[in-house]
Amino acid sequence: MRIMGRGRTFRTISLVLLTILAVLGVSTLVVRDQITRHRRDLFSRSARQRLAALGFIAGSKASVDLVRLLRDFVASEPHGLLRRRAEQIIERMEAQLVRGAPARAGIAG
């Protein structure tokens, strides 16, 4: 009887872990799609879509790639409000990257 209980417990744990991995996989794909879509929308003809893309990027983790993308955006953005918002995001992300730089300084060597 105890052996059967262990098998059932193992199956249950395996099923839960498999479900968690599946949810994480799908979540990763959705997030990647959202990031791609918002990067594309950053250069949209619609100022509203550009503003929404900036809002999404502002909530993203700071990265060198995002800072470069935002600098390209600032260079091409005709609306002063959106340009200033992007500059604020760049400043914040650069500050975050500088704070994280000592941990990576040995790698860049």
Q: Can you describe this structure?
A:
The chain has four helices and no strands. It is an all-alpha fold and 109 residues long. The protein has one domain (2-100). Helix 2 packs parallel to helix 4 (80-108) and helix 3 runs antiparallel to helix 4. The chain starts with a helix and ends with a helix.
Shape by Cα distribution? elongated
Radius of gyration: 21 Å
| Number of E-state strands | 0
As a percent range, the share of helical residues equals over 70%
Q: How far from one another are the termini?
A: 61 Å
Order of SSEs: HHHH
Integer count of domains? 1
Features:
single chain, 109 residues, mainly alpha, 4 helices, disordered C terminus
How does the SSE layout of this entry go?
Elements (H helix, E strand, L loop, with lengths): L1 H40 L5 H12 L5 H13 L3 H29 L1
Task: Provide a compact summary of the structure.
Helix content is 86%, strand content 0%. By secondary structure, the chain is mostly helical.
